[in-house]
């Protein structure tokens, strides 16, 4: 089993600037012609700047309609939507869409345009010069882990589903909009690709800090990606709007409980990321190194495995002393089956990778797939146990959501004593029972 001696290195985030914008839906209603009930019924909802809000709920409950009203692909019948203080219902539609990237299933790429041209669509509309566009295309391809040299001139049909989806994300980010709207972005790819794309989105978000609103059918995806989850019933009625942890631990009512489905305990594993677990340092080598020298180094450090890295510190091989001993020179030939997880991966995904690899350990990579170290099953199990033990404090600020049609200034009085909306759903007017105080939101957990 690969070494895991030092437990000092922990993957952490550097401080980053939030570039996202706050979105406020105020009493928004959408009635489609010929429909008896509104698809969205008087929804008021705050979407905090730089955070990820997942919209979930049964089919036809109004998630997509809500999302598309934010960039006015669908016009609201009533109400207003405010983006960083500007009423978007009064804004020119094209201008608005440049402030909001939009990602749909399978990327929604133009088939007759190359990857570079697809990504360049909005910058071209904005009149950027050629050099600036070319530099931006390459920068974005790097961001979504596609080598610009290899991919910029390809056409969508030459890409896998996952690669198309990556280009779709790159295109949505092209003009650096503060908001990213995503509609079932990973619905069309296989589960393993979906897991990778989710991890990548988490990595990208750590870098860009956009406001992301994402519709999904998949509650596990909502738990994995969301800072906040909004659970809707028909008519986009908000039943609960809270952190994934709270929704799993305290579903607002039987509807949410059903929606979460079985295995809420297991889903908690999705909440802990590899970055939260201590990772061990790994012995490193480069292609072309003399194998005897590498072996001597391994013996000196007491490590039994060595990771061979390329010039950008991305793992290519993970060799035992025996394997190194058989070589004259370290080849650096890429091993396609390397057990690699991102530091943004959930413990659930990390465990899967380790079990499949049968190494009982995995390499951890961070930004731009560079090696951070090694984790093993024991440290993951210890972290899971610790997470289970951790008691959850109710003391935090949450964004507010409601279908009462008015801003819930004294909303806390409308809820049960414990601050939760009632189980019959009728007094659940204020999801998570928040209170809007200017732009600051206070939840029952804040009450002294
Ligand atoms: N263009 C339209 N004309 C008439 N009714 C529509 C239209 N688009 C959506 N609806 C109806 O509005 C309601 C909400 O639809 P919406 O697509 O927003 O729900 P959803 O939660 O995104 O559903 P799904 O998860 O199935 O995509 C549904 O009853 C749907 O049939």
UniProtKB/TrEMBL annotation:
Alphabetical list of Pfam families matching this protein: ABC_tran
Domain of life: Bacteria
PROSITE patterns referenced in this protein's UniProt entry, alphabetically: ABC_TRANSPORTER_1 (PS00211), ABC_TRANSPORTER_2 (PS50893)
Keyword Electron transport: no
Keyword Transport: yes
Signal peptide residue numbers: none
Stretches assigned to the ABC transporter domain: 23-260
Keyword annotations of the record: ATP-binding, Nucleotide-binding, Transport
Compositional bias per record (Basic and acidic residues), positions renumbered to this chain: 413-438
Annotated region described as Disordered, given as residue ranges: 391-448
Family: Belongs to the ABC transporter superfamily.
Protein name from the UniProt record: ABC transporter
Organism: Tersicoccus solisilvae
């Amino acid at each position: 089993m690969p070494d895991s001696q030092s437990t000092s290195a922990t993957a952490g985030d550097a401080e980053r600037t939030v570039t996202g914008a706050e979105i406020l839906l105020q009493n928004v209603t959408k009635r489609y012609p010929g429909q008896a009930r509104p698809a969205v019924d008087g929804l008021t909802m705050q979407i905090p700047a730089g955070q990820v809000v997942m919209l979930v709920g049964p089919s036809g409950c109004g998630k997509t309609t809500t999302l598309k009203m934010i960039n006015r692909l669908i016009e609201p019948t009533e109400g207003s939507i405010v983006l960083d203080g500007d009423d978007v219902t009064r804004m020119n539609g094209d201008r608005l869409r440049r402030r909001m990237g939009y990602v749909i299933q399978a990327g929604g790429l133009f088939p007759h345009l190359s990857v570079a041209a697809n990504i360049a669509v909005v910058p071209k509309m904005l009149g950027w010069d050629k050099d600036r566009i070319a530099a931006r295309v390459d920068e974005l391809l790097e961001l979504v882990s596609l080598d610009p040299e290899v991919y910029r001139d390809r056409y969508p049909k030459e890409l896998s589903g996952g690669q198309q989806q990556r280009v779709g994300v790159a295109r949505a980010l092209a003009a650096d909009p503060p908001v990213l709207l995503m509609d079932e972005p990973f619905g069309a790819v296989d589960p393993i690709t979906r897991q990778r794309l989710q991890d990548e989105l988490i990595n990208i978000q750590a870098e860009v800090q956009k406001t992301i609103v994402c519709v999904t059918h998949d509650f596990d995806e909502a738990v994995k990606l969301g800072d906040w989850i909004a659970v809707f019933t028909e008519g986009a009625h908000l039943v609960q709007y809270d952190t994934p942890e709270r929704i799993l631990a305290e579903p607002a009512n039987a509807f949410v409980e059903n929606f979460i489905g079985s295995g809420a305990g297991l889903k908690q594993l999705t909440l802990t990321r590899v970055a939260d677990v201590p990772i061990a340092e790994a012995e490193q080598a480069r292609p072309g190194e003399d194998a005897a020298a590498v072996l001597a180094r391994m013996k000196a450090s007491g490590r039994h495995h060595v990771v061979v890295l390329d010039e950008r510190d991305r793992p290519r091989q993970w060799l035992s002393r025996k394997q190194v001993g058989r070589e004259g020179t370290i080849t650096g030939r890429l091993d396609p089956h390397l057990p690699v997880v991102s530091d943004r991966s959930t413990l659930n995904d990390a465990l899967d990778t380790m079990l499949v690899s049968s190494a009982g350990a995995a390499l951890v990579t961070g930004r731009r797939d560079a090696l951070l170290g090694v984790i093993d099953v024991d440290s993951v199990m210890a972290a899971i146990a610790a997470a289970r033990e951790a008691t959850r404090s109710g003391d935090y600020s949450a964004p507010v959501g409601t279908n009462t049609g008015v801003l819930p200034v004294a909303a806390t009085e409308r809820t049960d004593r414990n601050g939760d909306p009632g189980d019959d759903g009728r007094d659940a007017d204020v999801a998570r029972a928040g209170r809007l105080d200017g732009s600051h939101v206070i939840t029952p957990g804040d009450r002294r």
